[in-house]
Inverse folding.
């Protein structure tokens, strides 16, 4: 127990302070260049040079860009209108439409600031260029961006946080209940009485899973009702799909809980270990820090974070109205995870010591 | 070798690190017998019993219970035995009836059979008034009797009782032994541990365990002759003095 008390928190310190920052990085930037002038290319290059933006992707039309955003392939799309360069010369003022994926509202706000900064610095550089070209009276050039936040138009904090918080509720309760459960029976001695019966290991684990699974589904239902009634969170996608995903997801969490329970001797140990994973899972779920902003090794770690998938699915289905095929990758990974964790739970439950 | 022996143990040993909690014990138990497994606290009784009921791997030695090997057929043993732990191990947060239904169900008894048997059982134990109360609220003596009855509920061939009378009053102890006799009379083999030496008198044969080893094994009568003792308590004291 003593090593656990020191090692686990130190691990958390190292992992989380690197991974869970509030910086937004690696923003996937796309553009629609209808002008194809030197000026428009120079502006786009400005974004390419920024350390915050990467994956410069050109889209032919707004429709194609929108579809890519729905699939999560792009975070920001800037549209440069025809005659951009010419209008800029004649009018010295221009507006640019920027579409930002605001499913994570906090990140969207930060992205909007970055974009404005880059455009500002671009404005500065044009002024300098113009002053070199001619001695004519220098007119200030102004490009302004007009952001359009998709999936969460008003950047309502609650719209993107409530689905995430709902994920945490469902996860925490089911993890702690299942994590405490078998170890509690070890402590009070009833597990020994079970172990002398001819019960099959899989029967035992399924018997343990089912009540907690039902509790998790009930929590989701209550949470969704509150999300609708009190916070008026939109529900664009299919409820059925959300329930389908959740029903598999809870099995993952319960499998992890029962696995922890099998490996510990006291509820205190189990609680400690469950908390360790919970904190890492939450802070690396993309709920607070966008996954793309994390260092590569941390991004790799999040592949094993079930909460990440649930947050994604919950936001996608509720806010974007994503369908079955959109969440299929998450669904498959979660299913594999569920089979794996419950297999481990059955395996690690030993009737004979 | 006769087929009457339902438990056969040879050189059974359990090590915890360097410490031999059970040190090469050998004995046999016959069908229908009440076998007293005696020893002071810490002698190794519980440890030995856990190996026989298939929840603890032996370090070495051999043992079969109801004809099944403890190493390879633990789950078959479990179908044929009942076990009452020295620590009360029914669910405190379930009622008397729920506990009976639950354990009856695990052993694969039908609903109908469970219903019939549990009604008879509750009546026999005089628990009609508390049948729907949580077990946690019952007095210890009642809990012990219920726990014993649950261990017999699926009609096992052998029942293992670990200090079944620990901490209960003399009257309840007396009643408890009557229940044990009744089960034995119906053909169940009883393997019972105790550190109350007076209870040894009620057993057909007893073994006395000291520091992990079996130091004496015979009927109470013969042991008293052998050690020229008045009571089993004297036998034990003489053994303990060495
Ligand atoms: N899991 C264990 N690890 C280490 N030592 C143990 C363990 N279980 C029992 N022991 C030790 O083995 C000895 C026998 O214990 P036990 O079988 O419970 O005795 P009894 O039931 O006769 O009172 C004791 O000294 C006890 O401390
Ligand atoms: Mg004991």
């Amino acid at each position: 127990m003593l090593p656990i008390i020191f090692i686990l928190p130190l691990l958390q310190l190292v992992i989380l302070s690197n991974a869970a920052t509030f910086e937004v990085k690696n923003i996937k930037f796309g553009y629609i260049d209808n002008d194809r002038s030197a000026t428009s290319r120079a502006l786009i290059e400005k974004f390419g040079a920024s350390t915050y933006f990467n994956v410069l992707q050109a889209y032919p039309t707004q429709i194609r860009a929108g579809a890519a955003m729905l699939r999560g392939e792009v975070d920001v799309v800037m549209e440069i209108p025809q005659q951009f360069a010419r209008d800029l010369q004649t009018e010295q003022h221009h507006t640019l439409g920027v579409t930002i994926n605001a499913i994570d509202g906090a990140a969207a706000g930060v992205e909007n600031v970055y974009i404005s900064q880059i455009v500002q610095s671009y404005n500065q550089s044009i002024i300098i260029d113009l002053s070199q070209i001619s001695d004519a009276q220098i007119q200030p050039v102004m490009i302004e961006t007009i952001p359009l936040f998709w999936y969460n138009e008003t950047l309502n904090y609650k719209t993107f946080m409530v689905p995430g918080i709902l994920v945490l509720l469902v996860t925490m309760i089911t993890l702690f209940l299942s994590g405490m459960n078998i170890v509690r029976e070890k402590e009070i001695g009833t597990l020994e009485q079970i172990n002398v019966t001819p019960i099959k290991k899989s029967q035992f684990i399924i018997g343990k899973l089912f009540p907690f699974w039902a509790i998790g589904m009930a929590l989701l239902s209550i949470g969704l009702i509150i999300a609708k009634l009190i916070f008026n969170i939109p529900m664009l996608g299919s409820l059925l799909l959300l329930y389908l995903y959740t029903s598999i997801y809870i099995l993952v969490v319960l499998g992890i809980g029962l696995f922890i329970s099998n490996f510990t001797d006291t509820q205190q140990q189990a609680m400690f270990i469950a908390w360790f994973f919970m904190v890492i899972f939450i802070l690396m779920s993309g709920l607070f820090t966008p996954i793309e902003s994390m260092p590569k090794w941390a991004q790799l770690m999040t592949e094993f974070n079930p909460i990440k998938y649930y947050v994604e699915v919950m936001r996608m289905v509720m806010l974007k109205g994503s369908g079955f095929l959109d969440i299929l990758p998450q669904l498959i990974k979660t299913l594999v995870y569920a089979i794996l964790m419950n297999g481990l739970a059955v395996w690690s439950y030993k009737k004979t010591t | 070798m006769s087929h009457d022996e339902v438990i056969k143990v040879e050189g059974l040993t359990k090590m915890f690190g360097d410490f031999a909690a059970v040190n090469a014990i050998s004995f046999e138990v016959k069908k229908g017998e009440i076998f007293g497994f005696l020893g002071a606290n810490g002698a190794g009784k519980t440890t030995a019993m856990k190996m026989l009921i298939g929840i603890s791997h032996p370090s070495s030695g051999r043992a079969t219970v109801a004809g099944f090997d403890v190493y390879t057929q633990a789950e078959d043993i479990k179908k044929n035995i009942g076990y009452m732990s020295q620590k009360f191990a029914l669910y405190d947060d379930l009622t008397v009836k729920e506990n009976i239904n639950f354990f009856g169900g695990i052993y694969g008894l039908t609903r109908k059979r469970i219903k019939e048997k549990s009604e008879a059982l509750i009546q026999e134990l005089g628990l009609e008034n508390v049948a729907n109360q949580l077990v946690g609220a019952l007095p210890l003596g009642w809990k012990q009797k219920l726990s014993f009855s649950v261990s017999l509920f699926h009609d096992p061939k052998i029942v293992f009782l670990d200090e079944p009378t620990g901490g209960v009053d003399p009257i309840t102890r007396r009643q408890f032994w009557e229940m044990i006799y009744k089960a034995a009379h119906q053909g169940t083999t009883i393997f019972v541990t105790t550190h109350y030496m007076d209870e040894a008198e009620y057993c057909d044969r007893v073994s006395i365990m000291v520091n992990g080893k079996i130091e004496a094994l015979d009927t109470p009568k013969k042991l008293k002759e052998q050690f020229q003792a008045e009571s089993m308590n004297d036998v034990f004291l003489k053994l303990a003095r060495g």
